[in-house]
Automatic annotation (TrEMBL):
Residues 11-429 form the TRAP C4-dicarboxylate transport system permease DctM subunit domain. It is found in: Cell inner membrane. This is TRAP transporter large permease protein. InterPro entries: DctM, TRAP_DctM. Keywords: Cell inner membrane, Cell membrane, Membrane, Transmembrane, Transmembrane helix, Transport. Its main location: membrane. The lineage of its organism: Bacteria, Pseudomonadati, Pseudomonadota, Alphaproteobacteria, Rhodobacterales. PANTHER family: C4-DICARBOXYLATE TRAP TRANSPORTER LARGE PERMEASE PROTEIN DCTM, SIALIC ACID TRAP TRANSPORTER PERMEASE PROTEIN SIAT-RELATED.
């Protein structure tokens, strides 16, 4: 590859390593180290760059949000939430499909991670939808699509990373993502009439899914008691987001508050947090956090090579040269993000593409907050698109189905998500209205 510079060789090597199934983090690291060797830099500089890449205060939010979500799943908060929403909206047309959508949106404000949301609430929702008569593939597809919105609905790990990379206010990103996230949820609800079986909503209340101690009581009594049981879990998003928007604590501090809150609720209120459960949860969260932070560390090295080789100017200039119409350029960027999301996880896509597309954003005068929300929706869709949609793999494991069947079940929701993406792109006010109103 003598005609290519070290940076371009690095990108080619990265995709070659991915093709032979080298883990993403090591593909990033090995290709970046190769480029640095070609450029004449030593490993001592690589160590400094890796350390600098992860030694950012804002990144502390990631492991703590992951831990908070894991704790809320292991302490029974998810079960209580699903029971409450089942009683509240389970009798509506669509039955458990409506419940699944609502719970996915609500859990997105707790977890912040798509795959984690699938693992935490997927088994219960899929089983409940099957009891209501839905096909298992459609149930798994709904969980895939709904959980993908976890990286859109605040507090979102993806938005935290975008704010760090783009140097944009994370609080404003959180505010801006609220209405688009809810709108994307509405597009999911619009799909239900096309996949819902006749009589959905009339199935057994929660039989076989979550024990319902209040079965047989009048509706009002069941609703009140299920609300009382789930109250502290339902308060979680209000505690996290209310504290951020009122200025009591920053988004990074909110992650620690969420963790402490989950420990208090699980240990003192619900009394469901045993030492064994705490150990397992800490181990699970540590593994997930290590995976994310390893990608962040090596992606920083990868991004440094891109900057030094001036690939940003080369590729961003190429994007600007495609057309003089900003909408055409935006369409190309979204296609790049969607295609990249088919093969890589959201964090990797951001670290590789944002250094190139952010200069284009500034050149064209796009609002960085709106653009950040748009990027997150693109990457959320990537979580449910084969061949490497991460949510598909987790849902297939949870539902005991093949990836192909889960992908077919998720197809209606994928189409709806693309429609929602087009609306959010065409109407920036949907993202920015709340930011301007609160500022």
């Amino acid at each position: 590859m003598p005609e290519m510079g070290a940076g371009t060789q690095m990108i080619v090597l990265f995709f070659l390593l991915l093709a032979i199934r080298v883990p993403v983090a090591f593909s990033l690291g090995l290709s970046a180290l190769y480029a640095m060797w070609r450029m004449g830099f030593g490993l001592d500089l690589a160590g400094d760059l890796i350390t600098a890449g992860v030694a950012r205060y804002s990144l502390l939010a990631i492991p703590f949000f992951i831990l908070a979500g894991a704790l809320m799943g292991s302490t029974g908060i998810a079960e209580r939430m699903i029971r409450f929403f089942r009683v509240l909206v389970g009798g509506l047309p669509g039955g458990m499909g409506v419940v699944g959508t609502v719970v996915c949106l609500f859990w997105g404000a707790v977890s912040g991670s798509g795959p984690a949301s699938v693992a935490a609430i997927g088994p219960m929702i899929i089983r409940g939808m099957e009891e209501d008569g839905y096909a298992r593939a459609h149930a798994a597809g709904l969980v895939c699509a709904g959980a993908a919105l976890s990286i859109v609905i605040p507090p979102s790990i993806g938005l935290v990373l975008f704010g760090v990379i783009a140097e944009v206010s994370i609080s404003q990103l959180f505010i801006a993502a609220i209405l688009p996230g809810l709108f994307m949820g509405l597009t999911m609800l619009a799909v239900l009439p096309f996949i819902a079986p006749k009589g959905a909503g009339a199935g057994p209340a929660l039989a076989g899914m979550i024990p319902d101690p209040y079965a047989g009581l009048p509706y009002g009594a069941r609703l009140w008691r299920s609300f009382r049981d789930s109250f502290w879990g339902l308060m979680t998003p209000l505690v996290i987001l209310g504290g951020i928007y009122s200025g009591i604590f920053t988004p990074t501090e909110a992650a620690l508050v969420a963790t402490v809150y989950a420990l208090l609720v699980g240990g003192l209120v619900y009394r469901s947090l045993t030492l064994r459960a705490l150990y397992d949860t800490l181990a699970e969260a540590a593994g997930s956090s290590a995976t994310v932070m390893l990608i962040v560390a090596y992606a920083g090295l990868f991004g440094w090579v891109i900057t030094v080789e001036d690939l940003v100017s080369t590729y961003s200039g190429g994007l600007l040269g495609i057309s003089e119409n900003p909408w055409v350029i935006l369409l190309v960027i979204m296609l790049i993000l969607l295609i990249a999301g088919m093969f890589m996880d959201a964090i990797t896509v951001m670290f590789i593409t944002l250094p190139i597309v952010l200069p284009v954003m500034h050149e064209l005068g796009w609002d960085p907050v709106w653009f950040g929300v748009l990027v997150m929706i693109n990457l959320a869709i990537g979580l449910i698109t084969p061949p490497v949609g991460v949510n598909l793999f987790v849902a297939a494991n949870v539902a005991h189905l093949s990836i192909e069947r889960v992908a077919r079940g998720a197809l209606p929701f994928l189409i709806a998500a693309l429609v929602g993406l087009a609306v959010v792109a065409a109407l920036p006010g949907l993202s920015l209205w709340l930011v301007h109103w609160l500022s």
